[in-house]
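From the pipeline queue, job 12 of 40. The input is one protein chain; the requested action is below.

Action: predict structure.
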Amino acid sequence: MPKPLTILLASPRGFCAGVDRAIQIVEAALTKFGAPVYVRHEIVHNRTVVTDLEAKGAVFVDELDEVPAGAPVIFSAHGVPKAVPEDAARRNLISLDATCPLVSKVHHEAERHYREGREVVLIGHAGHPEVIGTLGQLPAGAIHLLETLADAAAFTPKDPARLAYATQTTLSVDETEQMVAALRRRFPAIAGPRKEDICYATTNRQNAVKAMAAECDALVVIGAPNSSNSVRLVEVARASGCARAVLVRSVAELDWAALADATIVGLTAGASAPERLVAEVIAGFRERREVTVREVTVTTEDVRFRLPRALEDA
């Protein structure tokens, strides 16, 4: 007879305001312009979301040359280099920007520091769309990307008195604090963001995992492997006392045999994972075990972002 199971359900979890807004932008564009509406890259890092929007008439493309002239094209929540909307204008496309406002804040900060004559370093992960977008706000070579503490230790600025930093919004809070502290020790005059760059949703989801990780025999994070904030949740869980933390896209990827001996399982979802995926995982456990669900709440979120003016009437 399987042992009863307690699921500790993290709160907050799942969609953040930036992801919710990006999805609404695609849906509003479909309402206003009709299908097809084109989206450059994944609107958010979740295949379920992309598939749902494809079913409604969204067409996802890698590059703008795949979009017919005059058609609407949406830029993903991660942000894009300045060259992308400029290219869209040359192609006579109708551009709609779904960049998360908190990512846009990082862009504006980087531009401000550059205008004021500071050398800019960006703490983030190479190749991530958000980092590519932030690097692309300034001329090539104007921002230096630092990924590790070793990078921070090796970096040599042109003028330590004229230096600033920004960060990717979906990093590990603790690791980023270590990176910033290392930079401040070396360069006490370094300027930082007026308000922390790591977004509220990333911080809250990591705090919820920290609050329950040590109590869990295993912890399941629902999210995509290319979702930075989801991968960070696994790392945070392991660092906070739950060595058996796993990332799955959906219930279909769960290894039930590996969880058979667990009596307390933590469950959360990255900021781009729909709540229905969480419900499906709980249902999967209930098919196999007697389950009690206990929510672990660290804060309540009430952040909302407005749609672009061009879509408010939709």
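Job complete. The chain has three domains: 5-15+200-297, 17-100, 102-186.
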